[in-house]
Amino acid sequence: MRIGKAARLRKSSLGDRVFDLCNIIFMICLMIVTIYPFINMIAVSFNDANDAIKGGIYLWPRMWTLDNYKYIFGESDIYHATLISALRTVVGTAVSVFCTAMLAYTLSRQEFVLRKSVTIFFVFTMYFSGGLIPTYLLIRDLGFINTFSVYIVPGVIGVFNMIVVRSFIEGLPEGILESARIDGAGEFTTFIRVVLPLTIPAMATVSLFVAVGQWNSWFDVFLYNSSNINLSTLQYELMKILQTSTTTATSSTSDIYSASQGNSGTMVTPASIRATMTIIASLPILMVYPFLQRYFVQGMTLGGIKG
């Protein structure tokens, strides 16, 4: 009897080891497939454009150069656009996360009679929108054209983010909130001093979502602020550089051309510019993510379980 039980344990242990081995191999392959394109972009961005069009660049530049970055940062508007992007990311993220958290707290309260109706109203907007033209007309009528507010106000509430935060708040012990009320705290005080500190994982998760969206956004600049160079963002300026380089390369007999605007002798191609833009646009988010990773994983896990 004991021999049969030991054999079953050995068999189960062997199966677990085989499963773990297959899982490790699969995850390593997935990691390689995920990371390789980014590493390749880095290699192309630091490689000479004339040499890059020959192909064969994988993990390491064949001919090192900084010409691609010199061309990008040689644009006179790039630094001011970077400042605007950073400003809209910080302000937009702070305002959106705070307002979304307040809405989530309100809709998580059982005593709020209309919470189901309001939730349905917000969820409806996740699947249906007014369309591009009605949205533009609304933004125009509100007076947000050529203003910094157009980066902040339209996205002040994220419905998906609200659902994540609300699910997290609903999982908090009700006794903590009741204790705050017994001590004389109002709803806003309870939200600021009790709810916010306890929802840091969910808030960090939502902050990462909003920050990435704000940093990468350029289409709203194109629609609403394209005529105001002082409100142009980094992503929009990079898009214009790529469009200019692609047009120039297409109209030329060669895929390589000499960059203008003070970068005399700098040889770039649309492929090299595209790779360089990818690195420049991704670097700030990559620098922030390690600090939020612990909260990001925890917030998504707990939010999913409690939802």
From TrEMBL:
Cited CDD domains: TM_PBP2
Record's bilayer topology term: Multi-pass membrane protein
Keyword tags: Cell membrane, Membrane, Transmembrane, Transmembrane helix, Transport
GO cellular component assignments: plasma membrane
Localization: Cell membrane
Any GO BP: transmembrane transport
Residues spanning the membrane: 21-39, 78-106, 118-139, 151-169, 190-212, 271-292
ABC transmembrane type-1 domain ranges (all copies): 82-289
Parts forming coiled coils: none
PANTHER family: ABC TRANSPORTER PERMEASE PROTEIN MG189-RELATED-RELATED (PTHR43744), POLYGALACTURONAN_RHAMNOGALACTURONAN TRANSPORT SYSTEM PERMEASE PROTEIN YTCP (PTHR43744:SF9)
Family: Belongs to the binding-protein-dependent transport system permease family.
Name of protein: Carbohydrate ABC transporter permease
Source species: Paenibacillus oralis
